[in-house]
Design brief:
Elements (H helix, E strand, L loop, with lengths): L7 E4 L3 H13 L5 E4 L2 H10 L4 E5 L7 H15 L4 E6 L4 H9 L4 E4 L3 H39 L11 H18 L2 E9 L2 H7 L2 H18 L5 E6 L2 E8 L11 H8 L3 E3 L2 E3 L3 E9 L7 H18 L3 E3 L8
Parallel strand pairs: 1-2, 1-3, 3-4, 4-5, 11-12
Antiparallel strand pairs: 6-8, 6-11, 7-8, 9-10
Helix pairs in contact: 2-3, 8-9
Length: about 325
């Protein structure tokens, strides 16, 4: 069954021709028909409300059918819409029609046989425009769904660990927990100092194996109640809470530092040793509650110091008033 509410726009500088087209469409039962006497007027109407089918004369003053098609395709791109373009023409040369198809025209109706060709071509245009716009809407929905998934995603897809977003969420919860219950929050940053050197020596597949191996090694060394996250290619963090502030020291994480530095990791390229730097950023309830950003900032500075000294360093975040 034809869609008699199909939005159609007829563009022709010759009023008699546009009247014939409009009358033929209305006699076939189509109800949503608009008529413009020139291309600029047609574009204005389409900006106000899109159409599914555009029927335009090829030869018009100011802007011909091909130039109008160029403008329509730009408008379609901006509005995520597809307009089926049919040109009315007396030109039947292969070269002319080939040029028009290259410019984005979908179909032609020869003026000499317009009354017989018009309605069957509209039936075909309706199906094609509906299919294209259904696909565009479905694709837009997929893109939006992907954006929502990415914005809510808390998993690092390569290693299966939690990512930086989750690390911030977890750190925020632990800081507030320590603030209300006492104890200390620990944000331990572990960075692979020789990562860039290794990237120059090994292909991405081996580096991926290495990242997964580091994740597994770290995961086997942390406490079950700790959160391990990957926040960058070569950076991992452990987010921990200690009910007793005195227990939150580098000693509590020493075995992790030794475990990642003193034993090579197996890959398809053989055993690879990594040089890890670690920095403990510690915040106790007695000393005040820093912001997540201040914990992260202090940890980065601590990691830089750890790289330079090749030691496991401890650093205290700045406590700002009003935080």
């Amino acid at each position: 069954m034809p869609n008699l509410d199909l939005p159609i726009l007829v563009v022709d500088d010759a009023k008699f021709s546009s009247m014939v087209v409009g009358r033929t469409l209305r006699n076939a039962g189509y109800r949503d028909i608009r008529i413009a006497n020139n291309a600029p007027a047609a574009l204005k109407l389409m900006e106000e409300r899109p159409v599914s089918v555009l029927i335009a004369d090829w030869l018009m003053p100011e802007m011909d059918g091909l130039e109008l098609t160029d403008q329509v395709r730009q408008l379609d791109e901006q509005t995520n819409h597809y307009t089926y373009v049919i040109l009315l023409t007396a030109r039947e040369s292969v070269e002319a029609l080939s040029e028009a198809f290259d410019r984005g025209v979908d179909d032609f109706i020869y003026k000499s046989d317009m009354t017989k060709q018009l309605i069957p071509r509209i039936f075909a245009a309706d199906r094609m425009a509906d299919r294209q716009n259904t696909l565009l809407r479905a694709n837009a929905l997929l893109v939006e769904n992907n954006r929502e998934l990415e914005s809510s995603n808390i998993i690092d897809m390569e290693t299966g660990l939690c990512n930086a977003k989750y690390a911030r969420q977890r750190l925020q919860k632990i800081l507030r927990h320590a603030e209300s219950r006492g104890g200390a929050s620990a944000y331990v940053m572990c960075g692979i100092r020789n990562w860039q050197d290794l990237k120059r020596k090994h292909p991405p597949s081996v580096m991926s194996e290495l990242a997964i191996g580091i994740a597994r090694r770290l995961n086997s060394l942390i406490r079950p109640i700790d959160a391990l996250c990957r926040i960058g290619d070569n950076q991992f963090v452990i987010v921990s809470y200690f009910p007793n502030s005195d227990h939150c020291t580098p000693t509590a994480f020493r075995r992790i530092f030794d475990g990642i530095n003193h034993k090579a990791l197996k890959t398809t390229a053989g055993y690879i040793s990594v040089e890890a730097g670690m920095a403990l950023c510690r915040a106790s309830a007695e000393e005040g509650t820093p912001s997540v950003q201040d914990m992260e900032k202090a940890s980065i500075q601590g990691l830089i110091d750890a790289y330079e000294t090749r030691r496991f360093v401890e650093i205290t975040p700045e406590i700002r008033e009003g935080v």
